[in-house]
From TrEMBL:
Coiled coil: 409-452
Protein name in the entry: diguanylate cyclase
Record key words, sorted: Coiled coil, Membrane, Transmembrane, Transmembrane helix
A single Gene Ontology CC term: plasma membrane
Organism: Marinomonas hwangdonensis
Length: 635
């Protein structure tokens, strides 16, 4: 009897234990229920279901069933929450390949939205952010930059506070930050982007001092400083990147040499820029056409700088064709602008006008607005075509673009951020040095050590303050130089068209003269453009000398076109004498075959500034027509 009771008790204990095991196994299953069904979701089962789902998704993608692709994708993501890290890394990589291969832009956007929705909030951060990283690169592949930025904006704070526990998760965290920095650079918000790159670089180095992604950071920092017009730092980072190209990243080499050439060209070192281009062309590796397209655009800029216009035109034609084929709208804008400028140089003005207008008005998904130079190129063509009213309108758009770009590229803030980063590194080195010193001299007098540390800190502070002062002085000087360049004509040192339009807004002038040199073409054609430049400078100097006796402002507003604003009433006879005197003096400097035409308009004759310019222009052209026989005989 006792034996039977004992056996019954053992059976009860066994059943109770079995029930407990069942409950323990069931609890995580209930927490991980998904839209698939309510069956148990253990890791092996989840892996099997994901494998089957991947096959179904691939088939749906092949036939273009986007709705089914999106539905299956959300299930795969949820299931990946219950499998091992190596498994969900492989799954996310394979999904990315399918999305790109089948051009699943809508599914990628839907997947990104799902990852920041309540439906995915139960997931562990490691798999969720691994998926977010892969989808981020896919969105960049599909040029969906605005969608990607809105997704990352939601998660930035959480990403920063996240404490990953594996090297892969740490790499994911760093990648998300450096992707966000790239998005800011594409919007030319370089100052805002730098902290994300610096933080990403620190996270990558925590995984591996030679992590391949550090190379990517160097490249993007080079690109960022190029856009910020800090060309020396751009050159510095790109040269670092060229010295550490990881195995298998030969696709980036053309892009690196393009950025390097651009940085050199914009430092007024075009010969070195061309050497960098030819170094790459001697051994080209171009599996990615978009990278080589960017390289070709920089090549055109360098050829333009070196005035190799025939070569530049041929390259611009082939680059425009490649940009059209690749379909990158921003590169196509630049290729169209270069081709338009070169057609203008070869006097094919109708083609130039059409292409430049197309470049200005075409859409862009990466940069915000057009570069200021695009408007200047178009203004030059409109001026040559005699469409002065339109030229004035586009010149105003150039001014707005110039101001907007200057506001985006805050040089002072960028310099301060760079200095803070360097100071942070110095502080880390300082902390390490102090720890080693404390360990080596633990038995020394603490007061003496304290005094030495204070002295060292004070010296460091003085050095830092000195460096900041020098940097601020240099930045202020650069700012003044940029402002001067914006309002000064580089050939004559007179105020340019921008300065003239600004002065025109003042209410204290009484009259306007528009003057134009007759005979410049003769000197350009027979003696070269340098002689033509000397004529323009001579005429400007003689006008300044003559007008020194009057309360007037002189501007060079075009190639051989000048404007004079008078601030008091002067008889027409006196003005005529001054203009003839300036012309005679110019002829006496070695330009005997030169002439000049001008038109005088009084402010009280018109209603506004535009009418004043138009009236002075008309009268100048009337005089030019009257002078034609004389001018023709001169020529």
């Amino acid at each position: 009897m006792l034996s039977l009771e004992f056996k019954e008790k053992r059976l009860h204990y066994f059943l109770a234990l079995l029930f407990v095991v069942f409950v323990l196994l069931r609890v995580p299953t209930l927490q991980a229920d998904t839209p698939w069904d309510n069956t148990e979701l253990l890791s092996p089962l989840a892996s099997n279901r994901i494998a089957i789902a991947m096959q179904k998704m691939s088939a749906a993608a092949d036939v273009g069933n986007q709705k089914l692709v999106i539905e299956i994708l959300s299930r795969i993501i949820v299931d990946s929450n219950s499998i091992a890290e190596n498994d969900y890394i492989e799954v996310s990589a394979n999904v990315s390949l399918i999305l790109r291969k089948t051009n699943q832009t809508a599914a990628t956007k839907a997947l990104a939205a799902f990852l920041v929705s309540e439906d995915a909030s139960f997931m562990k951060l490691a798999p969720r952010y691994r998926w977010m990283m892969k989808i981020s690169y896919d969105l960049m592949f599909f040029t969906e930059f605005s969608t990607l930025k809105s997704i990352l904006d939601v998660e930035l704070d959480t990403i920063k506070k996240w404490t990953p526990t594996t090297d892969d998760s740490r790499t994911v965290q760093a990648n998300l930050y450096h992707i966000y920095g790239q998005l800011l650079v594409r919007q030319q918000r370089v100052a805002e982007a730098l902290p994300y790159f610096y933080q990403a670089e620190a996270w990558f180095k925590a995984v591996d001092d030679n992590h391949p992604s550090i190379f990517v950071i160097q490249v993007i920092l080079g690109e960022a400083f190029l856009q910020a017009k800090d060309y020396q730092r751009a050159e510095q980072f790109i040269r670092l990147a060229l010295n550490m190209v990881p195995e298998g990243r030969v696709d980036a080499i053309s892009y690196l040499y393009a950025i390097l050439a651009s940085a050199l060209e914009r430092q007024q070192r075009p010969v070195e820029a061309l050497d960098a281009i030819e170094t790459y062309l001697a051994n080209p590796v171009d599996p990615r056409r978009d990278y080589f397209l960017y390289f070709s655009l920089i090549h055109i800029e360098v050829l333009r700088h070196l005035q190799e216009f025939d070569l530049a035109l041929e390259l611009a034609k082939s680059t425009h064709a490649l940009a059209t084929e690749v379909g990158n709208e921003d590169y196509l804008k630049d290729a169209t602008r270069h081709l338009g400028f070169l057609y203008a140089y070869f006097n094919q003005l109708d083609k130039a006008k059409r292409l430049l207008k197309e470049a200005i008005e075409s859409p862009s998904h990466i940069r915000e607005g057009n570069p200021p130079q695009a408007y200047l190129d178009y203004v030059e063509v409109l001026t040559k075509l005699g469409q002065y009213q339109s030229a004035l309108g586009y010149y105003a758009r150039y001014h707005s673009a110039f101001v907007e770009e200057s506001q985006r590229i805050n040089q002072t803030e960028i310099a301060n951020l760079a200095f803070q980063q360097e100071n942070q590194r110095l502080s880390q080195q300082q902390a390490l040095s102090e720890a080693q010193l404390a360990l080596a001299k633990a038995n020394e007098n603490r007061a003496h050590l304290h005094t030495r540390v204070l002295t060292w800190a004070a010296t460091t502070l003085v050095i830092i303050v000195t460096i900041i002062s020098v940097m601020l002085f240099q930045l202020r000087r650069k700012s003044i130089q940029l402002h001067q360049m914006a309002i000064e004509d580089q050939l004559t040192k007179l105020g340019n068209r921008h300065a003239f339009l600004h002065a025109l807004k003042k209410p204290n002038y009484t009259a306007l003269i528009i003057a134009d040199i007759d005979g410049l073409k003769f000197y350009n054609d027979n003696y070269g453009h340098q002689k033509g430049d000397e004529l323009i400078k001579s005429y400007a100097n003689q006008m300044q000398k003559v007008l020194s006796r009057a309360d007037a402002e002189l501007f060079r507003i075009g190639g051989d076109e000048f404007a004079i604003l008078f601030h008091h009433t002067i008889p027409h006879t006196i003005v005529n004498e001054w203009m003839k005197d300036a012309l005679t003096r110019t002829q006496q400097t070695g330009f005997a075959r030169v002439g000049a035409s001008y038109g005088l308009a009084m402010r009280d004759e018109v209603r506004n500034d535009q009418e004043l310019i138009s009236l002075a222009d008309q009268r100048m052209y009337t005089m030019k027509e009257a002078n034609k026989p004389t001018t023709d005989s001169v020529r």
